[in-house]
Design a protein that fits this description.
- The protein is built from 8 helices and 13 strands.
- 24% of the residues lie in helices and 19% in strands.
- It is globular, with a radius of gyration of 19 Å.
- Helix 1 crosses helix 6 (181-197).
- It is of the alpha/beta class and 318 residues long.
- The strands form 3 sheets. Strands 1-2-3-13-12-9-4-5 form an 8-stranded mixed sheet. The chain has a 3-stranded antiparallel sheet with strand order 6-11-10. Strands 7-8 form a two-stranded antiparallel ribbon.
- The protein has helices at residues 5-16, 80-99, 114-117, 126-129, 153-160, 181-197, 260-263, 279-286, and strands at 54-59, 62-67, 73-77, 105-109, 135-139, 141-143, 202-203, 210-211, 214-218, 242-245, 255-258, 268-273, 305-311.
């Protein structure tokens, strides 16, 4: 769907209404500190109630478990530090695969602890080996607040990641925070459709929704992903690409969010979950109870590959 001239004007306003902080700052001159990690000699122990459905192997301090229940590959680590190390390699490997095949690599970020878990990407060897110039960065959801506000997912990503890598400023797609929640959602969807028209973003042949190369997602303690919360009507939205919420159970109340058809049209999704407080939702999603509630996180199912990254606390109940 081509953008009308009015829509294009709305889309261009995303760029004109940037906050006082820039989208991307220059890289620091000195070479980034190399990544080092002292691995523990003893691996993570996992107890599976149905061993026929799981295949586990321990390598150094990591236990990697592959589930046969259609939920994807599950990786469990001793610590969040090891999660970050593995996530960096995973992201870099997919980036290299896609940029060798295409002129653009479309990446979707979430908020929360996910950005902190991406910190190893700004260290060697990844800072110098990734083709950052092909990255196009989006948000799976955003709070409708100014971009320099403490609740802004843009600010979180800028401070912890985007300001440290040389992604061209024009390839980072923040929402227009000068609009209402509804207006910002419509404007962001117009942005996506404009990028489809220009060939930067492709659509899924299966669904007709935009197909992002990689989504890097987190999960809330209640099992919500993006701004799609348990029991909320937006979980069932199947027409729009981007929608809005004004009554978020978690503040701030006004947000925009990708819908599940867009999330599930992605090629690759990494679901990064750390901390004991999230173990019950993971148990409900990947555990064996037939009566478990289907939480939003359990509705995530990309077209190509799903990979779960857990520390042992988050995985303690599976």
């Amino acid at each position: 769907m081509a953008c009308s001239s009015r829509s294009l004007l709305s889309f261009s306003s995303v760029r004109r209404s940037q906050p006082s902080i820039p989208l991307i700052s220059p890289l620091v001159a000195q070479k980034p500190r190399s990544c080092t990690l002292a691995l523990r000699s003893k691996g993570v122990s996992l107890i599976c109630s149905n061993p026929k459905k799981f295949r586990a192997r321990t390598r150094s301090s990591m236990a990697e478990v592959t589930a046969d229940n259609g939920k994807g590959k599950v990786k469990v680590f001793d610590s969040e530090e090891e999660v970050a190390v593995s996530l960096a390699k995973y992201t870099a490997d997919i980036s290299n695969k896609i940029t060798n095949e295409k002129s653009s690599f479309t990446v979707v970020l979430s908020g929360g602890s996910l950005i902190h878990s991406l910190r190893k990407l700004v260290e060697a060897p990844y800072i110098d080996s990734i083709e950052w110039g092909k990255w196009h960065v989006f948000w799976v959801d955003e709070r409708v607040v100014p971009k320099d506000h403490v609740d802004s997912n843009y600010k979180l990503a800028y401070d912890g990641f985007l300001s440290k890598v040389p992604i061209p400023p024009g390839q980072v797609y923040a929402i227009n925070d000068a609009l209402s929640a509804e207006g910002a959602a419509d404007d962001y969807e117009t942005c996506l459709k404009h990028l489809v028209t220009n060939g930067v973003l492709h659509v899924s042949a299966k669904t007709g929704f935009p197909k992002f190369d990689l989504m890097l997602l987190g999960m809330g303690p209640d099992g919500h992903v993006a701004s799609l919360f348990p029991g909320h009507p937006l979980v069932k939205e199947n027409k729009k690409w981007v929608t809005f919420i004004k009554d978020s159970p978690k503040p701030p109340p006004e947000r925009i969010t990708f819908t599940f058809p867009v999330i599930n049209s992605s090629a690759y999704i990494a679901m990064v979950v750390v901390g004991a407080g999230k173990a019950p939702a993971i148990e409900a999603t990947l555990g064996k109870s037939p009566n478990s509630e289907v939480l939003p996180v359990g509705m995530v199912s990309p077209e190509d590959e799903m990979t779960w990254f857990f520390d042992k606390q988050a995985a303690s109940k599976i």
